[in-house]
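Subject: for your reference before the review

Hello V.,

The reviewers asked for a structural picture of the protein, and I figured it would be easier to keep everything in one thread rather than splitting it across files. Below is the amino acid sequence we used in the manuscript, unchanged from the supplementary table.
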Amino acid sequence: MASNILELNNIKMQFSGVKAIDDLSFNVKENEIFGLIGPNGAGKSTLFNCITQFYKPTEGTVGYRDASGTLHMLNERKSHQIAKLGIVRTFQNLALVPLLSVADNMLIGAHINYRSNLFDQLFNSKKLKQEEAANREKAAKILDSMGLLPYQHMLVSGLSYGILKKVELARTLMSNPRLVILDEPAAGLNESETQELAQTIKQLKNDYNLTVFLVEHDMNLVMGICDTVCAISFGKMLAIGKPSEVQNNPTVQAAYLGEGGDA
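And here is what came back from the structure prediction:
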């Protein structure tokens, strides 16, 4: 049985008296695709920010289990230390650098693993050159596996939105993550691009032995690829379970999917 990679216990997040997250607890298992759904303002992005420590929860703990089985309490970490543990995230809005090539944007994703120091950077040392060459080779392999290799030398600013979404997903792999957190990855995509994204997420999960935790409004995507779905509203848990169980839950239907539960 798969062990938990993420353990959220009694998470509360309050802003000036407003409860954005209200006593949420659940676990995410290794190598699953876990979906978080809820209406606008439900607290989904706030919860993501609590996991990655952009926000410090008002109460509760966030635990992350690394490859050796050690449980790290993320509350005790700074936000910039989270990626070194093997956790990486995307954002609702693209965070690529428009005037850099796809390959150079990929290298940004590898910066946390660079061993070169300031001296190496200033004098463009042999060590730095070797490290950059290795990372460029790694980036090319990742891009090739995702059908993006023809774009590697193109500027990001000239590419379609659908391609850019895939590039951003590809960049997360440069830091050798175990847990990838995706904040509305299908936002702005058309139906065919969303279907392609679904296949890409499943492929990457299997090829790179990832756990994927995503927030998404596209119910066809969520119900089609997730192993577990958690529905929240106003920061409170509505239901958690297999996609079909959550989709057919009357409380979820009323709060999010609409009466009758059409996805």
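For the response letter, the relevant points are probably these. The two ends are 30 Å apart (CA to CA). The first strand starts at residue 4 and ends at 15.

Happy to draft the paragraph if you're swamped.

O.
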